[in-house]
Amino acid sequence: MIEIRELHKSFGSLEVLRGVDFHVDAGEVVCVIGPSGSGKSTLLRCVNLLEQPNAGRVSVGGVELTDPECDLDAVRRRIGMVFQQFNLFPHLTALGNVTIAQRKVLRRSQAEAEKVARENLDRVGLADKVDAFPGQLSGGQQQRVAIARALAMGPEVMLFDEPTSALDPELVGDVLGVMRKLALDGMTMLVVTHEMSFAREVADRVVFMDNGVIVEEGPPAQVIADPQHERTRTFLSRILNPTALPDS
């Protein structure tokens, strides 16, 4: 469903992605982990060309987005994306936020857009919040509205860029619960996350990135429980045992 070949991305003199080869199969959940600055979010943003690669190829559903002839808007409609920040319109209700892109981009009628919006708000556990404005919702509820908004467009692929990093710890579980349900429903998902328990339980494959390259990838039982590379082991020991003292 997603195929990336020899992907390079630089910001000025800073080389962020250095020849990444990567794929996600249809129905697969892949979690990308790694330290800050390793290139995880840039990789994700290159999948729908929110960031333009300097070199390499990106294909989604068999269509090459990096082809100059590609109808980028048409392909992007097949890709849902959820960011760290919720990016909701504060003057619109939850229903309005989930409806607006359907009407503007997909040209659905108000009635059809509202029907789909209500279905997806129910899907994320917010059927009782359709008339609430973002300011009346918790961070976790706002993020679930953002997920419903992406789902309402009928994507084939969902991209998540650290969707729980801006949330208070007690609100994380509801958002991860929605993502677990999506995985069980067979949604193809590429997730940049620091939530190791989610990666361990839900991912079909875990990818560890560092310094713009993929260091290690495989099933969670291997990468998280029995990493083969020293860099992966060091990273995970700091994440899983944050209060441990460093070796003297």
Structure description:
There is one protein chain. The protein has 248 residues and is α/β, with parallel strands linked by helices. 36% of the residues lie in helices and 24% in strands. It is built from 9 helices and 10 strands. The strands form 2 sheets. It has a 6-stranded mixed beta sheet with strand order 6-7-8-3-9-10, with helices on both faces. Strands 2-1-4-5 form a 4-stranded antiparallel beta sheet, with helices on one face. The longest helix has 16 residues, at 169-184. The radius of gyration is 18 Å and the shape is globular. The model has no long low-confidence stretch (mean pLDDT 92).
Question: Layout of SSEs?
Answer:
Blueprint: E1 2-11, E2 14-24, E3 29-33, H1 40-47, E4 55-60, E5 63-64, H2 72-76, E6 79-82, H3 94-105, H4 110-123, H5 139-151, E7 157-161, H6 169-184, E8 188-192, H7 196-202, E9 205-210, E10 213-218, H8 220-223, H9 230-240
Parallel strand pairs: 3-8, 3-9, 6-7, 7-8
Antiparallel strand pairs: 1-2, 1-4, 4-5, 9-10
Helix pairs in contact: 3-4, 3-5, 4-5, 5-6
Question: What's this, in brief?
Answer:
The chain has 248 residues and is an alpha/beta fold. The chain is built from 9 helices and 10 strands.
